[in-house]
Every structure is written in C-alpha cells, then in structure tokens.
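Think of the structure tokens as a kind of shorthand, similar to the way a musician reads notation: each symbol stands for something richer, in this case the local conformation of the backbone. In the example below we present two proteins back to back. Begin with the first one, reading the sequence and then the tokens, and try to describe in your own words what changes along the chain.
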Amino acid sequence: MLAAAGAYVAFGVGKHQADYLLYPAGICAIALVAICMLCVAAGALRVWLFVRRRPAAIPAELETTHAVPTGFVFPSLAWWPLVETRVAWSAPTGIDVTLEPRGTLWTEVITPRQRGRHTRLVRRFTVTDVFGLCACSFDVAWDEPIRIAPARAAQSAELAVGWATGDAFSHPSGRAEGDLVEMRAYGHGDPMRHVLWKTFARSRRLLVRMPERAIAPSPTTVAFLIAGPGDEPSCGTARLYLERNLLGTDFLFGADGAAAPARDRDTALDQIIDSASSSDPAAALDNLGKNIDPVRLASCIVFAPAVDGPWRDRIAAFAARLPAPPIVVIGVDGAEPPAPRPRWKRLLVRGVEDGDAEGRALAGVPALRDALEAQGLRVQVIHRSTGQIL
C-alpha cells in the first residue's frame, strides 16, 4: 500500500504537475519499501541457513509455569540494517517464548503453560523491518519427543489429607491394630508369647492378650484425576500427593484417558501428563468404580478442575455407589480479582481488564465448592503456588 501510494504521488501527481516536493517523496516511499523487502529477504535467508541443521535443543525436564533456557540460538541480526527477528512455537501450543541476547545471537527461554506429551516441535521464525512494512516467516520442524509435566504444588498442601489417629478413637468394629490391652480365652493357633502366664498360675485359666479394636491411620488408597478446562493446578496437586507418598505405598491412581489404574508413581505421573489429550472429563470414573474393590473405595480422592462442567454430575453418581463420599481436591492458581472499577473510570481509563484470567477462574470456585458440597461431597481447595488451604 505504501509503495502504491508512493507510485501514485510520484508519477500520477508529482511528475505531471512538475512538483519537486511530491515526486521525490513518492520515489523515497517506493525505495524505502524496496530496501526493507531486500533486507528482510536477506535476513530471513541468513536465519534459515543458520537454524535448518541445528538440533532441537529440547530440555529433558519441562514443567508448566517454570521458565527454562533451551540452549537454542539463532542470529539476532543486530548489525543488519532495518531488521529484527523473533521466534515462536507453532507446535506444541501453549509455550511462551522470550529471547535473551548473547552477543550477536538470541538465546531462547520457554515457559510451558500446559502439560502434555508431543512428538514434533515446530518453531516459526519471523524477520521483519523496524517500520513494520514487510515481514518474512518460515517454519522449521524437528521430530523430537517433548514431555511437559505439571508443576508440583507447594509442600504444605499435604495438610489437605485427612489422617485419623488410632489411639484416640476406639471403635468396636475397627481392625485389631491397637495395643495389647484386651484379653480373651486361648484358642487353637494363638501365639504362646501372648499367653498370660501369671493369670494362668493364679486361676488356671489360659488367657491371651489381644489388641483393641481401633481406627488406625489409613492413607488414601484410590485417587482419580479429572482432566478438563482449568485442571493444571489440580494436576500439580496430584503430583504432590504422589511424590510425597500421601496416597500410601499401596495405591491405585487413575486419570482420564488411561486404560487401567497405575500402581507406581512414575506410571501415575505419565497418566497425569497424557490426560491433557482427553476430551471427555470424568469418562473413566465409572469404570474405576466397577473394577476396584468397594472396600478400597472407602478412602478415595478425586482431583477436579476449577471450572465447573458435566464432570460434577459424574462425580455425584460415582459417590452414590461408594461406602463413604470421596474427598474432592480442587487446585487453583492466581489471586482474588480486585473489586470492579466504576463505570466512569472504565470509560475514561483504558487498561487491563479487572483481574487476570486466573483470577476470574478463581472467582467461580466458591460456587463450584458449594455445588459439590450440596451433593454430599467433601471439598478441599488448595492454592498451588503457596499451598494454602482456601
């Protein structure tokens, strides 16, 4: 458009009217566009020749919200006239890219926003002139595996687990795991070390010690992760429970998209990562209840996203078949959004919308918690970055 306008001014107006001001101005506009195009094309060729055979430089450990330098470099063209360069990840999406100078090169620093597993990396390089008149973009692809894990929640989030104490709560139907404080008549097969020999010497009755029936500490043995919009903080909380052994040593962990429950920490973490590709939240929750002994489901945790959806009704149906309602753990990020500005201030002052996206998502959590509790579920809301129980 600038070149066309320059041609019209130079040859359509300036030359016919012998205007010695408009004619050179039009020629300068055409020359500026031509020079910018040549510089951009040459700069794009220089960058392409530099990066086409370079390795992908993907870090082995990637976590959401954590900035990581990849070690990938490409020319910054700082000494080239009129041009500048930038790069972005076309695939996978959800990666923020910042550039840091290193001499005449740019070095790449990435911050993943979404967990997932990918097999191909596509970087889009863009060379543009400083006036924004023209730009040249091209893609370079690498077939390299990429594994992005959710950032682990703060360690204080372990307070969300409800641990019962054995000595303080005696129950007649509890398991016999308490101290040896009760007695009964000797039976065939009882260990001889539990026999009360002093009592036998006085009364000639053979009695043995037996433990009291009490509710002993019992960690959660079954957990399930629901994948859906706003689930990244909950995934980080689930990772904390796994790595801190808060689910016990003999646990079952399921996630959306997984074929079978996991019994070890590494497999469970892989299921959390792979759940990002699931499109039907809580679809596998029904199979979990059918394939696991109901006795184990008496102690169950469900990690749920912070955004309401059809998964809430599925949790309610799942909980109706359990001997005890599960604990629903919701992970959240962000800060509480500020109070809305007056209308006159919004009209006169342009700026960022009230609260960020995470803050707006956090604003809907109280209503979600009330809805879950109205269905008879126990709910814990955990702030991932601080570990605070909200």
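Once you have a description of the first chain, move to the second and do the same.
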Amino acid sequence: MSTAVLTFTDRGIYCPDGGFYIDPWRPVARALITHGHSDHARPGHGTYLATHQALPVIRHRLGTIDIHGIAYGEARRIGDVMVSFHPAGHVPGSAQIRVERRGEVWVVSGDYKVEDDGLSEAFAPQRCHSFITECTFGLPLFQWEPQPSIAAQIASWWAEAQTQGCTPILAAYGLGKAQRLISMLPPLGPILTHGAVEETTRILRDQGYPIPTTTRVTAQITAKTHPGALVIAPPSALGSPWAARFGPTVEAFASGWMALRGIRRRRGLGQGFTISDHADWPGLNAAIKETGATRIFATHGYTTPFRRWLEEQGYEAGIVSTDYGGDEVETPTPVLEEDHSSP
C-alpha cells in the first residue's frame, strides 16, 4: 500500500517520496517555503527552497542560510515527485506548492488571498486531488469589501486627521500589508514608515515591486518636519514612546480582525480598517472549488467549523494541526462571541 503524497508530522507537512518538508516549524534537513512570514519561514533548516521573489526578504529575516530560488511554474523533480511553486496572492513572492507523484496531485496553499491587490503576484488556482488550505477567516461573517473601497475609507480618515491637526498612525504588518497600503493609497501627503516597515519596503522596491516613495522615521522626523503625513508602523508601535514624537495622533489598525468589534474595543481603538492578506469566506470557498479537489485539509484558523461546512458540501475534509498563524494583528485567532466553536 503506497503512502500518501504528503503526510502530517510534528515537524511540519512532509513528503516521504521527496524527503522534504513544507513550511516546517522545527528544524529539518530540507525545507520548501511558501513565503517569508516568520510563522512559515523559520531558522534552523539545512536547506531552503522558495520563489526567487521571496528570497531577499527571507535572507534578510533569517541571515546566512543555504537557500535556493525557483521560478513560478517551474517544474522540478525532487526524489520521486515533481514540485512547482504557483502564486498565492498573499504577499509579494508568496506561493502555493504543488506536489505530484504518478499523476496524483496535492497542493499546499500556505497563506493566500484571491483578490488581486496590484502588488503581489495574483492568486493562480491549481487543479489537484487534495488541497491543504488555510482558513484564518473561515467563517461566513468574514467578507471583505473591495480594495478601492477600503482605500477610500483610509484616505478619508487621513484627510480628517489633517483637519484636526493630528498625525494619523496606521498599524499594519511589516511584510505585505504595509506595502499594499503604501501602494493603494492616494498621494494625500508624505508617508512615513517605521524602520521595520521601511527596511522590508526597500528590499521589495529594489526587486522592482512598484511601491511609492516613503520616508523612514528617524530622530529628526516629526509632525513639524512632515506636515500632513501618514505614518505606517507595526502594531507594537502604537502608544509607544516612538509614536509620541508625532504629538497629537489618531491611531488605527488595518487587519481582517477589524471586522470584529471586540478586537477593536480590547485594543482601545476607535478606528479599524478591515483589510486582509488572507482569503475571506467567499474567497476560501471559491478557491477550493477552483482546485477541483475532493479532499480538503484545513489548517490554522477556524478549522472545526470550516471542516464541518466542507463536509456538508460533500468534501472529504480533515484538520491539520500546525504552528502557523500570526501575521494579522499579531494575535492568535480569537474565539468569537457569535460562535463558540474551538478555532
């Protein structure tokens, strides 16, 4: 009896016939990496393989490692399987990983979104027999507005802050979300960035991603030196001495979790913008349908209710326990007051 193309271990998703792991969370000899977020690209592996577009950020974050690049769509034999990487639409350089053995195809989604944000390589669905999908926002209440609508909301908030004599500080994750915001907003004024955001932005800009000019915040940068500016920073910067240099401020989060009033309330935020680099409920369902897969494995998110939904739709569904999750507001998936299922 042959083994499955991919198996699930305490180190990560493993391919026995290829001798590699996909996004392992414990040190392994050979790791295939979907993208550069820290919950998927971790230190300690022997060798790494990722898209050419993901390499610079991963190198920046992990230091000196043995990492190799692969082009989107390039088929490569590893052991007894064929492997290829395909756009996931999550952040620049992110990929789904397709593994084929003797005609049987499995796809690991990593993290993904189906809306084309104009910066990341657009999601490209892959036909397969088994699909391993995230479900970070795997409940019907999570349904995103189109990106232009969110851009208009943020622009209005930014303009209102100017009339009030306040500096708006927008919190966003430093890889992907921050650059997406910079790229999608109208030029209402200068955009200032926290050092952690600017360093990643510079790396992506140097690769050719079309990200507008920004200014890194230094000791000399204040609201007086850059009137009318918008500041983009990691969530940890809100309410910090770093933010105090800007005098009167208004603060907001940009995250899919802003769909939940309870999250905003616990963080003391009057304003939140619901925008995510993960698929929403319709996006998850559309992506799964496009794969043609009959076997679906759900990882990191509302796995229990999402599996139940998949089974009701006629899929063979399972749950994969992983260590993923953490690039949205830097919190684990919350249990909703509206749904007491364990995430």
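Compare your description with these statements about the second chain. Residues 147-163 form the longest helix (17 residues).
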